[in-house]
Design brief:
The complex is a heterodimer of chains A (768) and B (293). Chain A is built from 36 helices and no strands. Chain A is mainly α and 768 residues long. Chain B is 0% helix and 61% strand. Chain A: Plays a role in vesicular protein sorting.
Chain lengths: 768, 293
């Protein structure tokens, strides 16, 4: 088949070239008569019916090139004095119609150039005469040629051929007539030949469609095509041409041509007639994809600015009506995906045109719910559709952020998604809230939000585990939400927190480990804020909740619970307004101690924890002294019972602060601790790795030598210094190299400190 | 025979200024002929040129004007509707070169020079020098007569609706019934019903020569022009324009009853050809006339 076409083309082209050569010779010899004869023979090759549109197009292009030479010659002849009207008649003497009309168009275009007659008159004659070709393909190409050669010669506004100021109308008439006629020819192709050739024929028709669409392109590029002219004449006429053809291929293509060719502002102004046309198209026309194209373009246009027009035209209402019509007709059928694509385009447009109108978005979501519900019950909800639902949910979120929380249809639509998609949307919501740093200021909003993001918060029937890294990201973002809470009253604050607490508590340990600490800190931050603002409030309920939080964390991670618990204690301790919660603090700390005793087994964590405990306990003042003393003794006990001697030494050294701080100044006990630590250190002194321990100890000694005079003896300090210097400057094992060099740096800094004090006349007894 | 003693020739006056046009003779060969109108005088002269020192005796010189019709249908038949003879010289002898003027004045030449398929009408002048012993010296020259007509006022359009039931129904229109030879036929064909697969449509001009008159008359048709006006198959409602320049063809005016010998009439034939090459046609007579030379 293809080869046949090649052969036919080759033969035709060789004849065209031969005749073109003869024609050129005749033109060179100024033999017009002979040249026209050759031209006729050349054009006659296009009388063929055996070519496919693509092959014919190639032939047409070959002839087209030659025709332009002829046109040039006609113009030269005119300049040499030949009457163009004679030539116009002369070419009509050809008895064969196809060559005659091609030649007529060629002379006609030159005729316009000469301006001996108004362009309008010539165009009118040409457009009338070309009716003689009723064969679809030959007619389409002849008219395409007409369009091409007259392209620059239409009496458009501002054109030299516009003699009476009415030229644009004439050009419009010309192009509309040509469009109408070409469409008729094109549509007619569908009804020729046998039924079994239908596929081939439709392919051929598609190959030819640009020849028809060219008219719309030309119309759109007319300078004089004002909005007014478009509304009053051009669009109604094109729509009439389209609807009256009753041919789906044509309608599908030409409607799309309108969308692509004319300015978007024109589309907005003609939305109503345009949309009203769509239901009149053939049932097989895919109106949805047409609408998607239109809405996408309008959305892009709206995105570029100038939205004044939005105020004067009910864009949403008009489109809604059109879209709903389609939904009513097609929902539940096989077109779910396409319907949702349409909804996506619509929602995008609505968001661009009405970025603040949540009602509109909710309405679109509502009709989406209808589509999805029907599709779901008829089993037509495929994966692609689900992806589109995610889009429908994502777009409003990106634009409107938390305003989506007012849309009741949002979670309804979400409900149709499978777990992973639901979770994906939920995550996007959380992410959007976190990134926008929007404050969460009402119980209702939070309740809605939590409702929306429930897939992230608790396991449902269809839950699937996330990848660890994903899960972490999800929960970290969820955890951040609580820090966005801001409310007008403490009660509101607390009830919002409580919402979070209630839902977090259902999340299971894997989530709680992320969400509870965050919530705990949010609580503490809030309580501190209240206290700073001198708001007196009963904290018992809140502290109970905090306690519950800690208890739960303790089950999962005692270490964490201890750290967090200490934070709570310090927070309570810092209250100035609500200062009577020492008992609660004591209770917290007691529980922490029992956690230490019962849950901690690891040497390292015991060491770390005891130091933390020590640090916290040294700052506490809100607890009654008896309890406080008990606590201190327990901590001291913990310190002395560290497994490693060096750890014991460190911890005991730290414990000095328990006795000498803002609230206590017990020098003897400080001295006791230091001595005990020094005693243990001595046991450790054989291991050069422990040299750092001595430097630490030295610092503690110096600290208290300055802070609590009398608690430390300077000889002891000098003794330690001497020992250290001996260690770090002497021989040592290669194994201890790291520890020794660290100790050197530490020691160097310590010496520098001592010397700086000595330069101020202090620490004279200390040898550095 | 013994060699001619001289030559006789014939010439018409004022040929330099006169319009000359090509005319085909019956064999198709083109001759350029001077053109006269019906009441113009035919003026010229006969020249006798002697060979040096010779004398030419003759039985008289006469000049004749003929308007002749040749019909070559079935059997050849010649008739003269003009046959005029003038004595130019009485019998005698010519001793020196002479030039004898002649003139046919006020001879009405109402018929036009015409060469058709079977009928031919021509004008010629013939000079004859009668000889006693030798054969007569004869010379003929042909000239053409073309008569311009004035435009007739009454000239209505031709409109017609024709069709074959359930198959094809068209309405056509030609702007006039009478066209001059350089005229343009403008019209249109409107398709009311199309149930056949039309391949193309053409307009033909048929020339009908009617030989004889009255009951014995026979008609002979000849298509002398074909002009394609539509390519492809139209659908119902299609309106196809027609514009045919008659100047593209070699046509003669319509002649009615030329000296009771023949008539020439013209018909426009609208022909539709379908894909099986069946032809559907309708003929309409048009009157052709000569507006100018």
């Amino acid at each position: 088949m293809e080869e046949d076409q090649d052969k036919i083309l080759e033969e035709a082209v060789s004849i065209v070239k031969k005749e073109a050569f003869q024609m050129q010779r005749a033109l060179d010899a100024s033999d017009m008569r002979e040249a026209l004869k050759n031209a006729s023979s050349m054009i006659s090759e296009m009388k063929t019916s055996s070519m496919s549109p693509k092959t014919y197009y190639q032939l047409y292009m070959t002839v087209f090139d030659q025709m332009s030479r002829l046109e040039n010659y006609f113009l030269e002849e005119y300049r040499r004095g030949r009457k163009i009207s004679d030539l116009y008649e002369k070419v009509q003497h050809a008895s064969s119609i196809l060559p005659r009309l091609y030649l007529l168009v060629a002379v006609g275009s030159v005729y316009i150039t000469t301006r001996e007659l108004p362009a309008k008159a010539i165009l009118k004659d040409l457009i009338e005469m070309v009716k003689g070709i009723q064969h679809p393909m030959r007619g389409l190409f002849l008219r395409y040629y007409l369009n091409k050669v007259c392209k620059e010669k239409l009496p458009d506004k501002g054109s030299e051929y516009d003699t009476d100021g009415e030229g644009t109308n004439d050009s419009v008439d010309f192009l509309l007539t040509n469009l109408s006629e070409m469409n008729r020819l094109w549509v007619r192709m569908q009804h020729t030949g046998t039924v079994k050739d239908k596929t081939k024929r439709e392919k051929e028709r598609n190959d030819l469609r640009v020849t028809v669409g060219e008219n719309i392109v030309r119309l759109s590029s007319l300078q004089g095509l004002t909005l007014e002219l478009y509304i009053s004449t051009v669009l109604p006429k094109i729509l009439e041409i389209i609807t009256s053809s009753k041919d789906s291929i044509s309608q599908q293509y030409l409607i799309d041509c309108i969308i692509q060719a004319f300015p978007d502002a024109y589309h907005l102004h003609t939305l109503e007639p345009f949309l009203e046309t769509l239901p009149q198209l053939q049932p097989t026309v895919d109106i949805k994809s047409i609408l998607v194209n239109l809405l996408t373009r309008l959305a892009d246009y709206a995105g570029e600015g100038d939205l004044d027009i939005v105020k004067s035209i009910d864009i949403f209402g008009l489109i809604k009506k059109a879209v709903d019509g389609i939904i009513t007709e097609q929902a539940g059928g096989t077109e779910t995906k396409a319907l949702l694509q349409l909804q996506v385009a619509f929602i995008r447009l609505s968001l661009k045109c009405y970025p603040l109108n949540t009602q509109y978005v909710n309405e679109i979501l509502n009709s989406s719910v209808i589509i999805v519900d029907k599709a779901n019950s008829s089993g037509n909800l495929d994966g692609e559709s689900l992806k589109l639902i995610v889009k429908l949910l994502s777009f409003p979120l990106e634009t409107m952020s938390l305003a989506i929380l007012t849309m009741n249809n949002y979670p309804k639509l979400m409900g149709y998604l499978q777990f992973s998609s639901r979770k994906q949307v939920a995550f996007k919501i959380v992410e959007a809230v976190v990134i926008s740093k929007r404050t969460l200021d009402s119980v209702d909003t939070v309740e809605q939000l939590l409702h929306f993001i429930v897939p992230l918060l608790v396991d449902g029937n269809d839950s699937e585990p996330s990848e660890a890294y994903e899960f972490e990201g999800e929960q970290q973002n969820v955890a951040k939400l609580v820090h966005l809470v801001i409310a007008n009253t403490p009660e509101a604050f607390l009830s919002i927190f409580h919402k979070f607490f209630t839902i977090f508590s259902k999340g299971g340990h894997s989530r709680i480990i992320y969400t509870y600490p965050s919530l705990l800190f949010a609580y503490l931050k809030f309580l501190k804020l209240l206290d700073d603002q001198e708001v007196e409030i009963d904290l018992m309920e809140t502290l109970k909740t905090i306690h519950d939080i800690l208890t739960t964390i303790a089950q999962i991670s005692p270490d964490n619970a201890i750290k967090l618990g200490l934070q709570c204690v310090l927070c309570i301790n810092s209250f100035k307004t609500n200062s009577n919660y020492g008992q609660a603090a004591a209770e917290f700390i007691k529980q922490i101690i029992s956690l230490y005793q019962e849950e901690l087994a690891d040497t390292n964590s015991k060491f770390t924890t005891v130091n933390l405990l020590c640090g916290a306990a040294s700052r506490i003042h809100c607890i009654d002294s008896g309890t406080h003393e008990e606590i201190i003794n327990v901590i001291l006990q913990f310190a002395s019972r560290q497994l490693k001697k060096s750890d014991q030494c460190y911890s005991i050294a730290y414990c000095t602060h328990l006795f000498y701080n803002e609230n206590f100044h017990e020098r003897e006990k400080v001295a006791g601790c230091l001595n005990k630590a020094a005693g243990i250190a001595r046991i450790c002194s054989k291991n050069p790795r422990n040299v750092g321990l001595f430097v630490t100890l030295l610092n503690k000694f110096i600290y208290f030598y300055i802070q609590a005079p009398g608690s430390v003896d300077s000889d002891l300090i000098n003794g330690i210094t001497e020992f250290i210097n001996g260690q770090i400057n002497g021989e040592f094992d290669q194994d201890a190299k790291v520890q020794v060099s660290e100790a050197r740096v530490y020691m160097k800094n310590t010496v520098r400190f001592i010397k700086s004090r000595q330069s101020e006349g202090r620490l004279k007894e200390i040898i550095a | 025979m013994f060699g001619a003693k001289g030559e006789i020739s014939l010439e018409l006056e004022g040929l330099e200024q006169r319009k000359k046009l090509p005319f085909k003779d019956i064999s198709g060969k083109e001759n350029i002929l001077p053109v006269f109108s019906k009441d113009e005088d035919i003026v010229g002269k006969v020249n006798v040129v002697l060979k040096k020192g010779k004398k030419l005796e003759h039985q008289g010189i006469k000049i004749e004007l003929y308007g002749r019709i040749d019909i070559t249908y079935e059997k050849n038949q010649t008739s003269d509707f003009i046959s005029l003879s003038r004595e130019l010289e009485p019998p005698g002898a010519i001793t020196q070169n002479i030039s004898i003027p002649f003139s046919f004045n006020k001879v009405e030449k109402s018929y036009e020079t015409y060469t058709g398929r079977y009928c031919k009408l021509r004008y010629f002048i013939k000079v004859t020098m009668a000889r006693k012993v030798s054969s007569n010296m004869v010379k003929e020259i042909e000239f053409a007569v073309l008569n311009c007509q004035t435009e007739v006022e009454e000239n209505s359009a031709i409109k017609m609706e024709v069709g074959i039931e359930e198959c094809l129904h068209i309405e056509f229109e030609y702007n006039r019934q009478k066209y001059h030879l350089k005229d343009c036929i403008v019209g249109k064909v409107y398709f009311l019903l199309v149930r056949i697969r039309i391949k193309y449509m053409e307009l033909a001009i048929i020339r009908r020569e009617t030989i004889g008159a009255g009951a014995q008359a026979t008609n002979e048709n000849e298509t002398i022009a074909k002009y394609e006006v539509m390519d492809g198959a139209p659908v119902r409602g299609e309106n196809i324009p027609i514009r045919m320049f008659l100047g593209a063809f070699e046509l003669t005016p319509t002649y009615y009853n030329v000296n009771n010998k023949f008539s020439v009439r013209h018909f426009l034939n609208l022909v539709l050809v379908d894909e099986e090459d069946r032809r559907y046609f309708k003929q309409q007579e048009i009157i052709l006339w000569r507006k100018e030379l």
